[in-house]
């Protein structure tokens, strides 16, 4: 009588497979670490950089384009009682 497939112990005849080397770090950990470093660099930049003008231009360069000056506003002459 043949052994029933359900009564045979599992894994007795299986060849031992070598596990390939896996890193303990996943891609999601690398992405989270990169985002954390980016955030940390931004915070350090905001604390350490001295920018009193707040991003305004440091110098103004003349382009040679001179628009026509606006005509002076008309003055209203007052009668004797102003």
Report on the structure:
This protein is an all-alpha fold. It is 27% helix and 0% strand. The protein has 1 helix and no strands. The mean pLDDT is 80.
Keywords for this entry:
single chain, mainly alpha, rod-shaped
The tally of strands reads 0
Low-confidence stretches: none
What's the helical proportion of residues? Answer: 25-40%
> From N to C, what is the helix and strand string?
H
Task: Give the overall shape.
Answer: rod-shaped
The share of residues in extended strands comes to: under 5%
Described by strand count, sense and barrel closure, the largest sheet is: none
| Averaged pLDDT | 80
Brief overview:
The chain is mainly α and 82 residues long.
Topology:
Layout lengths: L26 H22 L34
